[in-house]
Structures are given as C-alpha cells and as structure tokens.
Design brief:
Blueprint lengths: L3 H5 L7 H15 L2 H10 L4 E2 H8 L4 H13 L3 E6 L5 E6 L1 H30 L3
Antiparallel strand pairs: 1-3, 2-3
Length: 127
C-alpha cells in the first residue's frame, strides 16, 4: 500500500485501503475451481445455464447458480433474461470478466511453462 508519506500524497479519491479490502473480497469470491472454469467457458461464448453446466462438467445445479450469482455480483458475469415463455436466460462475461479471463489464461500459460519444474519439485518435497 505504500508508506504513510506516499499514501498522504495521493488524492483523496485514491482510497488504497478500500481498494485492498475489495481486492481481497473479490479474490476470496472467485478463487475456486468452479469460478475459473465458468469464466473460461463464458469467455468462449454466451451460454444458457444448462449448456454451461454441461460444458463445465461435474458441477451441481446449486453450486453453478451460487457461483454465477457471485460472479454477477462482482460485475464479472452478465445475466440477460429474454421475455419469452418460459423465460430464457443467457450468461456472458462483462468487460471486467473478459479482462479477468486474460489473467486466468496467463496463469494457465505459466502452469504449462513450469509444469515440469513444479512436478519435479513436488516429487522431491517430503510429504
């Protein structure tokens, strides 16, 4: 966050403590395997709930609904209800969600680059 002098020199609208707190909360909300998979699949195209559930695989209806609500609450996923009978609902990534997907893709690229190194380290590390 910087030292007291650096923080004091910032304009009042730069509330670093608030930003840090929000970042921790968002990371806590999305740091699970389901959120990352949902973000990855919705980054490919807009999907309906059951289509997304099939693509993700192994996720329950309840857990998918909870994760979608959390991602929507954080502004990463947009839920669009179409006025049909019965109502049709689509999910897509917002601009912020697409930006996060880029970060997640970078993490996946990092894993692929260092996979051998990580596996070697895990083999040598005592349990």
């Amino acid at each position: 966050m910087g030292n007291r002098q650096e923080v004091g020199a910032l304009p009042p609208e730069a509330d670093l403590a608030r930003a840090d707190s929000l970042a921790r909360e968002i990371f806590s909300d999305i740091a699970n395997k389901w959120s990352f998979l949902i973000i990855e699949f919705l980054g490919l195209r807009t999907m309906r709930f059951n289509e997304l559930r099939r693509e993700v695989g192994g996720i329950s209806h309840k857990v998918l609904a909870q994760n979608l609500r959390t991602l929507e609450r954080n502004g990463l996923v947009e839920r669009t209800v179409h006025p049909t009978v019965p109502p049709s609902v689509d999910y897509s990534l917002t601009e912020a969600g697409q930006a996060l997907r880029t970060v997640v893709d970078g993490m996946c690229d990092w894993t692929q680059t260092y996979l051998g190194h990580i596996e070697d380290s895990r083999t040598r590390f005592p349990n």
